[in-house]
Amino acid sequence: METKDKELLRGGQFLVKETKCEDVFTPEDFSEEQKMMKEAVMEFNEREIIAHKARFEAKDFAFTEEVMRKAGELGFLGVAVPEAYGGLDMGFVSTLLVCDYISSGTGSFSTAFGAHTGIGTMPITLYGTEEQKQKYVPKLATGEWFGAYCLTEPGAGSDANSGKTTATLSEDGKSYKINGQKMWISNAGFCRLMIVFARIENDKNITGFIVEYDKDNPNGITLGEEEHKLGIRASSTRQVFFNDTVVPVENMLAGRGEGFKIAMNALNVGRIKLAGACLDSQRRILTTAVQYANERKQFNTPIADFGAIKYKLAEMAASAYAGESATYRAAKNIEDRISLRVAAGNSHQEAELKGVEEYAIECSILKVAVSEDVQNCADEGIQIFGGMGFSEETPMEAAWRDARIARIYEGTNEINRMLSVGMLVKKAMKGHVDLLGPATKVQEELMGIPSFETPDYSELFSEEKEMIAKLKKVFLMVAGAAVQKFGPDLEEHQQLLIAASDILIEIYMAESAILRAEKNAKRFGEEAQAIQIAMAKLYLYNAVSIVEKNGKESIISFAEGDEQRMLLMGLKRFVKYTNYPDIVDLRIAIAEKVKAENKYCF
Ligand SMILES: Cc1cc2nc3c(=O)[nH]c(=O)nc-3n(C[C@H](O)[C@H](O)[C@H](O)COP(=O)(O)OP(=O)(O)OC[C@H]3O[C@@H](n4cnc5c(N)ncnc54)[C@H](O)[C@@H]3O)c2cc1C
Question: Across-strand partners of 168?
Answer without folding.
Answer: 177
